[in-house]
Design a protein that fits this description.
This protein is of the alpha+beta class. The chain has three domains: 127 residues, no CATH class; 152 residues, Rossmann fold (3-Layer(aba) Sandwich), CATH 3.40.50; 93 residues, Alpha-Beta Plaits. It contains eleven helices and 18 strands. Strands 5, 6, 7, 9, 10 and 11 form a six-stranded mixed sheet that branches. The longest helix has 24 residues.
Length: 434
């Protein structure tokens, strides 16, 4: 029985693609590795045996493509949709690959063992997932109509690792083993993270005395300096047994409790607590390294969930009353409103020395609006009707319309830390909306 045209074409296409890429790699023109790129899949290991070394190599490359794409899907596809994943056919899969590197290989007469780094074409992957009805955490921004999916831009998360031993909270001091562990190699995932280097500017923004307080203004400066959008505080509390371990090479003992704090609502809020114990034979360095991997996995799972937001309904008009304490505050409120995702058609209905009324459109219900405004440091109160003002101009009647008070959240530093077991969150809760 002859080979079908489709199968023959797919095999030839893969072989030609492999040959061209091999020439590119040999000539040194392969793309540079970018660990921060979620469409780059590293450390793809294959071990294949066939009738010859050439056949084993070809088979290994096909297997590496499939394995890499599955790793990519696990990284990018939302948790609720991953069960619908299917491996693309060879031709489709080859068309989505931009280039690759063989970082390590061993060849015998019938066996090929290799490690690949494979880089995928971003737009091609997005198109495939879209056609497959798989929701993907995307790094582009789009907005459609009612009931559509809004995908927010992928942005860097700043991780602040605080280390607590007894009553002592370490931030920049020597001996912050948690900060040191985050400074070691971290496998690239979908969520780009940055960890402060602890220079003079970092110390100025978050000093040792502020290790148990939260200063949103200092954090805002750090976010800008590290080109990050959000920050997560992770406090690692060592019990007495773990604190007594003298070196990284010594066997680990005791318990390390991780408490996650979100900061996107201009205050530090505990959202999850994890208690970790060392595995048998695990050194202190290995234990802290595993704790970093565990924390990063929790953050990465949350990132996939929060980058896919479903619009809950059609756009609706809102009217808010803003209390004004100063001109600078009024300018800041207007800017924050304009920068809030989902708000459009904003106009000022009236302005007085101490208050202003603003109208805008938002694609969601009041609960969604309240959450979006909170990330900008704005607090949306409960609606009220009754004695509502009238505004000059056509279409500005407030009859029957609700008005919400909008205030600026207090930004004074406040203590946020709670000891393990007193954070008010369950160990089973997710790491919400970092």
């Amino acid at each position: 029985m002859g080979i079908s045209y489709t199968a023959s074409f797919g095999k030839n296409a893969i072989f030609c693609t492999f040959f061209i890429w091999a020439l590119l790699i040999a000539s040194g023109t392969a793309y540079a590795q970018s660990a921060a790129n979620p469409f780059t899949v590293e450390d793809v290991q294959v071990d294949v045996t066939a009738e010859s070394s050439v056949a084993a190599r070809d088979k290994a490359f096909e297997e590496a493509q499939k394995k890499a794409f599955k790793m990519l899907a696990d990284r990018l596809v939302s948790e609720g949709k991953i069960s619908g994943y299917r491996t693309p056919d060879p031709i489709t899969l080859a068309s989505m690959i931009k280039d690759f590197e063989v970082t390590n290989e061993k060849i015998s007469t019938v066996r090929y063992v290799g490690t690949y780094t494979i880089r995928f074409r971003e737009q091609a992957v997005k198109k495939y997932f879209s056609l497959s009805s798989l929701s993907m955490a995307d790094n582009s921004s789009s907005s459609a109509g009612t009931g559509s999916t809004q995908q927010t831009a992928m942005q860097t998360l700043l991780v602040l690792p605080f280390y607590r031993v007894g009553q002592n909270m370490k931030v920049w001091q020597d001996g912050n083993l948690w900060l040191q562990a985050w400074g070691r190699d971290l496998s690239a995932g979908a969520l780009p993270v940055e960890v402060p280097i602890g220079d003079l500017m970092d110390i100025a923004d978050i000093g040792e005395t502020e290790g148990v307080s939260f200063n949103p203004n200092g954090l805002a400066r750090m976010l800008k300096r590290y080109d990050a959008t959000d920050a997560a505080i992770i406090v690692a509390a060592a019990d007495d047994r773990l604190a007594a371990v003298g070196s990284d090479s010594s066997p680990a003992a005791g318990t390390l409790t991780l408490t996650f704090y979100r900061t996107d609502r201009r205050r530090a809020e505990a959202v999850q607590e994890l208690a970790l114990a060392p595995n048998p034979g695990e050194t202190r360095a290995q234990f802290f390294g595993r704790a970093v991997t565990t924390a990063y996995a929790a953050l990465n799972r949350d990132w996939k969930a929060r980058t896919i937001k479903t619009v809950s309904g059609p756009s609706r008009m809102y009217i808010v009353r803003v209390s004004i304490r100063s001109i600078s505050q009024w300018v800041k409120v207007q800017q924050e409103l304009k920068n809030t995702s989902g708000i459009s058609q904003m106009s000022v209905l009236s302005i007085k020395p101490r208050e202003a009324f603003v109208r805008f459109s938002f694609g969601g219900d009041p609960s969604s609006l309240r959450q979006s405004l909170a990330s900008s440091g704005l607090v949306l109160g409960q609606p009220y009707t009754g004695q509502t003002p009238r505004f000059a101009g056509p279409g500005n009647s407030t009859t029957g319309k609700e008005i919400y008070d909008l205030t600026v959240e207090d930004t004074r530093p406040a203590s946020f830390y709670r000891p393990p077991g007193q954070s008010g969150v369950s160990v089973d809760e997710g790491v919400h909306t970092f």
